[in-house]
Amino acid sequence: MKAVGYDMAYMFAYSMRERTHAHRNYVDDVPDDIKQRRLTELIEAFRESTGQCFDLQVGTVQLVLIEGPNKRAPDTELMGKSDRGHKVSFINVPLPDRNNSISDERNPVVGDFVEVRITKSSRASLFGEALAITKLSTFYNSTDEEAVACASRG
């Protein structure tokens, strides 16, 4: 977990599944308390790794695809995913639309791409300030790709 530095992981304590090779041929001889301890250690290692990656993104500009309102603040915030699959939330305010030559601002909607400057991170998500509505091509033609990527682990 530490060496690879996963951005996302589904982690569960082991349990036998019927009709599998393991169920037919092996005995689950690991006590539940040991399974839970191992799972806890794995989750802690994962959170440490993602926390470091997310912290490195503070100050960068990310491209975010809007998925909908933030469940924690549905009336004031939107939530989406960066192109790396990280959750990003931001306050829903009218923004300039880089795709439209008319200078009117509008609130982003589900399906829009938004440029977001990351201002805070947690172990599970990012929070930022929305800058503009954009398109994939517009964003990548005007942004230094290294400024949006997570630093390599080494």
TrEMBL record:
It comes from Xanthoceras sorbifolium. Signal peptide: none annotated. PROSITE patterns: TRAM. Residues 55-132 form the TRAM domain. It comes from the Eukaryota. This is TRAM domain-containing protein. Keywords: 4Fe-4S, Iron, Iron-sulfur, Metal-binding, S-adenosyl-L-methionine. InterPro entries: rSAM_horseshoe, TRAM_dom.
